Amino acid sequence: MSYTSHTAVLGAGVIGASWAALFLASGRSVAVFDPAHEAEKSVLTYIENAWPIMTELSLCDRGDPSKITFHRSAEEAVDGAGFVQENVPERLPVKHALYQQIESALMPQAITASSASGLTLGQMQGGWRDPARFVLGHPFNPPHLIPLVEVMGNERTAPGVVDVADAFYEDVGKTTIRVRKEVPGHIANRLQAAVWREAIHLVQYGVASVGDVDKAISAGPGLRWAAMGPTTLFGLGAGPGGLAAFCDHFADTFNGWWDDLGTPQLDAKTAEMLVDGLDEAIGSASLADLSAQRDAMIVALQKALRVRPDC
Ligand SMILES: NC(=O)c1ccc[n+]([C@@H]2O[C@H](COP(=O)([O-])OP(=O)(O)OC[C@H]3O[C@@H](n4cnc5c(N)ncnc54)[C@H](O)[C@@H]3O)[C@@H](O)[C@H]2O)c1
Question: Does 33 sit in the ligand 1 pocket, CB within 6 Å?
C-alpha cells in the first residue's frame, strides 16, 4: 500500500468518528486525536455500530477495526500519517490553532484535508505557513454511508495534491467531485439550501403542508436524483432531441417558475411553522425510529445503485 495506508483523524465527533470507521474499513490504520474526555469510548462504539452497515455495503473487505490508536496530542497522532482528515469544530481560530500545531510534525508528503462545511479553503489556508498540501475534503454526513466528497485545492495548492486526495477518497469508496471556485457552502449544501428555500416558501404561501412538500421530493424527483442529476435527467426528458430540445421546449416555463420562487428567511416564526408542520407529518413516530428507517433505506438504495457502471 502507498504512504496513505496510515491515516490520522483529528477531531472525532459526528464526522471524525465516521471517517475513522471508513478508513479502517478500507484496510488503513487510523491514529485519532480528540481532547474530549469520552472520545475513545464513543469512537469505538461508533465503529462497532457502523461496521455491520459497512459490511453490508461491501466496504469492509480489506478492513480491520482494531487498527485504531488514540493519542494525547495532534502532533503525536499525525506522526507518520500519509493522509490526515481534520474534523474539529467549525470555528476558524480552532482550525488555525490546530494547523499551526501539526504543521511541523507532518511527514513532507502528507496531505491534510478539512471536512469544513462552511469555512472556505482560503480562510483555512490562513492557518498554514505553507498550505501546499492542504485541501478541502468535505463529506456528506455520515461519511461512512453517503458517498459524496467535495474536493478542492486552489492556486496555493501544490500540483497533483488534489489528484492524490481524490484517489485516496475513491479508494475508501467515495464519489468525489471538484469544487473549482470558492463559494460559501461549496456545492451540495447550496443545492440543498435552494430546494429547502422553495419547500419553505410553498408551506408559508399555503400551497401544501410540510408533509406533502417532503413527499413531493422523496416520492418524486428525489428518487430520480438518487439515480442521476437534474441536468442529465432533463436531457432524457424531451425525446431524441436531448437536452437542447428540452431547453428549447421549456425555457419560458422554467424562466417563469424561477421568477416566481420565494425567498423566505429562516427566522423564529418560520422555524415554529416548520416544527409544527413536521410534528403533524410524522405523528407518533420517534426521531430514533425515523433515523433507523432512513439509514436502512439509504443502505438499500446504495446497494441498488451498485448497478451503475461507475460503481
Ligand atoms: N455534522 C455534519 O453534518 C457535518 C457534515 C459535513 C462536514 N462537517 C464538518 O466537520 C467538522 C466537524 O463537525 P462535527 O459535526 O463532527 O462536529 P462535532 O462537534 O461533532 O465534533 C468536533 C470534535 O472535535 C473535537 N475537538 C475540539 N477541538 C479539537 C482540537 N483542537 N483537536 C482535535 N479535536 C478537537 C471535539 O472534542 C469534538 O469531538 C466541521 O468542520 C463541520 O463543518 C459536519
Answer: yes
Measured from the CB, is residue 188 less than 6 Å from ligand 1?
Answer: no
What distance separates the 2 farthest-apart alpha carbons in the chain?
A: 62
Q: Verify whether ligand 1 is closer than 6 Å to residue 126 (CB atom).
A: no
Q: Where are the domains of the chain?
A: 3-178, 189-305
Closest to 310 (Cα-Cα) out of 179, 175, 187, 178: 175
For 227, the grid coordinates are: 439515480
Tell me the C-alpha to C-alpha distance, in Å, between residue 239 and each of 51, 72, 82, 102, 236. 44, 61, 49, 55, 6
- CATH tag for 3-178 (out of 3.40.50.720, 3.30.470.20, 1.10.3300.10, 3.40.50.11540): 3.40.50.720
| Residue 37, SS3 per DSSP | coil
Measure the CA–CA gap between 154 and 178, rounded to whole angstroms: 11
- Kindly state the DSSP code that residue 105 receives in the 8-state scheme: G
- pLDDT tens-digit readout, 22-38: 999 999 999 999 999 99
pTM above 0.90, yes or no: yes
| Closest to 81 measured CA to CA, from 24, 171, 5 | 5
Q: Kindly report the CATH number that applies to the domain delimited by 189-305.
A: 1.10.1040.10
Rounded CA gap, 201 and 189, in Å?
18
Q: Helix, strand, or coil here: 57?
A: coil
